[in-house]
Amino acid sequence: MPQNTLTITDNRTGKNYELPIEHGTIRAMDLRQIQVDDDDFGLMSYDPAFSNTASTRSTITFVDGDKGILRYRGYPIEQLAESSSFLEVAYLILQGELPSRTELEAWSEEIIHHTFLHENIKTLMEAFRYDAHPMGMFISTVAALSTFYPEAPDIFNLESRTYQIKRLIAKVPTIAAFSFRHSRGLPYVYPDNDLSFTGNFLSMMFKMSEARYKVSPALERALDVLFILHADHEQNCSTNTMRSIGSSHPDPYSALAGAAAALYGPLHGGANEAVLRMLGAIGSVKNVPGFIDRVKAGGNRLMGFGHRVYKNYDPRARIIKQVADEVFAVTGRNPLLDIALELEKIALEDDYFVSRKLYPNVDFYSGIIYQAMAIPTTMFPVLFAIARTVGWLAQWQELLSDPEQRIARPRQVYLGQGQRDYVSIDRRRS
Ligand code: CMC
Asked: CA 256, CA 179: separation in Å to the nearest integer?
């Protein structure tokens, strides 16, 4: 009968240790008993960037990178993208189960009810420079929301916490759209609560002088699917930030602003913006082979390719390619698509990419779709943040209800100087 344990022999001392294995993991703290002598701190694991460290147990999102599987609460992403809506998926991710019809109606009604921003928030946003990056405005405004809700730090009060969660999901599209309007010098458009979550967002983005914005059903659905695909992705960089900040128990607005800042980087939520810049710089299909050579020589990264977890294919990329066709049927074909298709074709046959298991990720095509919808590149990470707000909040809730979690505090391996005496400035090297 195989034992669910790991036997370790410490060759420094000849001692044996037996560590329990649970859910395919050993507890890092179990290593601490492995000491050379009584003064030894004990063995630690060294894992920069957490490549092989589970920081939590979670029941929200399942990813199998080798098989290309993504599931929210057990439901395959393909089925959710096909049949569900973003608000329904948000309910599922936060509550753990799909809502009944009545529950979904009540949930949607509540979210819609919270879409308006306090007028002071609007004034605050107006104070940004005319050319402020919308993501900088988004991050700052979400952080500022905490000052409007003094009850928000009461995070262990379930009623208050639930309230803040609904407010955040409802208000992030409004903040996002106001950021965009600001960068265009256009008046902010207030929410239209008779529209769907995504329909209202499109209205706040693009409404001009017409009495009511006419939402294209195809674009509304495409955006809803993109939001579903981005709603959660287990312990990625920004979610880890949400949990890390959340572990010191601030209000959710402050924690979510930090998570959004982590998302902003070009290796994470900024990747689709970087993809478009890359496609623009390549300029035409004939330049693709030369660009691939530069990537292989280490001069560039092929943005939108590669993933820390998916080493076979990113299931979201497949769905997004279908969405692209539906969007282009309405908007016309984005000329950058041909460059993207050529890049993908060459890269998927090239040994450099094949041997490193580099495949198109979710962001390879999402930017091209957004651009076809007349959404500027600076807004891409903001759109990602609207969707991921749901995942961040679900993960934050899970953290707060997990008795094993404490304030996040990794260890380090110190390799700096040993103790040395202070040298006065006139005795230092010139
Ligand atoms: N283009 C060219 N080479 C690459 C790329 C790329 N996009 N990604 C990885 N490599 C190479 C890398 O140089 C390394 O090669 P070598 O072994 O010769 O040194 C090898 O592949 C392994 O790379 P890594 O940096 O160890 O991989 P990682 O798991 O740390 O990085 C990643 C994952 C997503 C940061 C990286 O693939 C990347 O920078 N991709 C481009 C940015 C991007 O598209 N990001 C969006 C990720 S999906 C959305 C999200 O989750 O936020």
From this structure: 17
Between 14-23, 179-188, 263-272, 343-352, the lowest mean confidence (pLDDT) is in 263-272
Nearest-CA residue for ligand 1 atom 21 is: 356
Burial annotation 200-211 (CB, 10 A radius, 16+ → b, else e): bbbbbbbbeeee
> Is 133 designated active site?
no
End-to-end CA distance of the chain: give it in Å, rounded.
Answer: 70
Judged on CB neighbours under 10 Å (0-12, 13-18, 19+), 123 is exposed
pLDDT tens digits, 357-404: 998 988 888 888 999 999 999 999 999 999 999 999 999 999 999 999
- Residue nearest ligand 1's atom 44 by CA: 304
pLDDT beyond 90 at 18: yes
The reply to whether 38 belongs to the active site is no
pLDDT of residue 273: 84
Calculate how far, in angstroms, residue 358's C-alpha sits from the geometric centre of ligand 1. 7
Please tell me the distance between residue 236's alpha carbon and the centre of ligand 1 in angstroms: 14
Model pTM?
Answer: 0.92
